[in-house]
Amino acid sequence: MASLLRAWQRRRALSRDPIPPALWQQGVDSLVLLDGMDDASLERLRRLVVPFLAEKRLYGAHGLEVGPDMALNIALQACLPILELGLDWYDEWATIIVYEDDFLPRHEVMDETGVLHVEDMPYSGEAWERGPVLLSWGAMARGETLAIHEFTHTLDMRNGAANGMPPLHREMRVSDWTRIMTAAYDDLNRRLDLEQPSDFDPYAATDPGEFFAVMSEYFFARPRVLQREYPDVHAQFRQFYRQDPAERRMLRASMPIRSDR
């Protein structure tokens, strides 16, 4: 019954489609991430964006007004990873909080010796298992792929903790995913330890969950880099996301990659 009601609500949202054509075109043109996407793919994206905006609650923190252009930008980046997966992949959370720029969450972390540490470093984004998703509009306005990072964290957390293991499709093998992702993660850490040059944001080496989110950014924003450096990871992502940004030649230029912190 719940799925039938959700489907009806989405059809209703699409029938009303409140996004003016000029605003939609402006939003699409402003995102290099969407370069090379054909009309059919853009139409599928719109059919995700409209119900996404109807279902999710966007709040501006500390008086920030989230205007229609901001909301559309966030929705476009949120829906790109699920273009071939469907909106139900985001059904476990509903709230997005947008900050004007980086923010200072207060985290308490217990280390292995039992000592409690308080983290107060600035973040540009954060995602919780049941929401909310927190975003810095300043980072997004600078063209960083922060939203891709945070929304792919929510895909990862559909299996619980953000550990780099999202729910895989039936045709995918957990053993292949684990072997390939672990090998690439270990290789990146080794290269960083040896101070060897790397095209990847070092934040990817923090833990497997961040590795998945950062590499997802590269998959959508700089797919040729990921394809060249870790072709097996790129192939796994192509299966998981069921799309291939490198194949459709999405990008004309590199985009800056930005981690949570």
Integer average pLDDT: 89
User: What is the first-to-last residue Cα distance?
Assistant: 41 Å
Structural class: alpha/beta
Q: Kindly provide the radius of gyration, computed on alpha-carbon positions and rounded to a whole number of angstroms.
A: 18 Å
Oligomer: single chain
Order of helices and strands: HHHEHEEEEEHHHHHH
What portion of residues is helical? Answer: 40-55%
Q: What is the β-strand count?
A: 6
Query: What percent of residues are in strands?
Result: 5-15%
Estimate the global geometry from the Cα principal axes.
Answer: globular
Strand order of the largest sheet: 1-2-6-5
Largest sheet data:
4 strands, mixed
- The helix tally amounts to 10
Low-confidence stretches: none
Describe this structure in words.
This protein is α/β, with parallel strands linked by helices. The chain contains 10 helices and 6 strands. The chain has helices spanning 2-16, 21-29, 39-55, 68-79, 137-141, 146-156, 174-193, 208-221, 223-229, 231-241, and strands at 57-60, 95-99, 107-110, 116-119, 125-127, 133-136. It has a 4-stranded mixed β-sheet with strand order 1-2-6-5. It has a two-stranded antiparallel sheet with strand order 3-4. It starts with a helix and ends in a 20-residue tail after the last helix. The model has no long low-confidence stretch (mean pLDDT 89).
